[in-house]
Amino acid sequence: MARVVVDVMLKPEILDPQGQAVQRALPRLGFEGISDVRQGKRFELEVDGPVDDIVLTRIRELAESFLANTVIENFDVKIEDFTDASGNAQNAKTANNTATPQNTTDANAQNAAAAQANAGNSTPGEGK
């Protein structure tokens, strides 16, 4: 069994009013030295069986079509921990099975371009 984590964050060019509100409140609460706050979402998916390239591809598709609004959000998919064939717990650093941010960024850029090309004549999930 493995835990795959999908982190979803607003793109840097998108305003983050919730993050700004937290940032403005921090000094009043005694927390100094925080220059920026961005709010995001974290999804933890428990996967039955091994996590191979096919499973990671399906999870990226899930993130792209359901968990993230790729017009305004980026996402990152990584394996947080898993159990190997002998039943020993491993983590992503020792397993070296993390999805690269470049892959998800490229997919997000392609989706944004497709969304712009299909603006006004597509429904959610189309244009991929």
Our estimate of the beta-strand percent is 15-25%
Gyration radius from CA atoms, angstroms: 18 Å
Mean pLDDT across residues: 77
Globally, the shape reads elongated
The top-level CATH class is Alpha Beta
Q: State the end-to-end distance.
A: 30 Å
Computed structural class: alpha+beta
The amount of helix comes to 25-40%
Note the main sheet. Answer: 4 strands, antiparallel
- In the CATH hierarchy, what is the architecture at level 2? 2-Layer Sandwich
SSE arrangement, N to C:
EHEHEEHH
Provide the spatial order of strands within the biggest beta sheet. 2-1-3-4
* CATH topology tier name: Mth169, Chain: A
Describe this entry's structure for a reader.
This protein has 128 residues and is α+β, with helices and mostly antiparallel strands. The chain has a single domain (2-117), classed as Phosphoribosylformylglycinamidine synthase subunit PurS (Mth169, Chain: A, 2-Layer Sandwich). It contains four helices and four strands. Strands 2-1-3-4 form a four-stranded antiparallel β-sheet. The longest helix is centred in the C-terminal third of the chain and has 17 residues, at 101-117. It is elongated. The relative contact order is 0.19. Mean pLDDT is 77; it is low at 93-128.
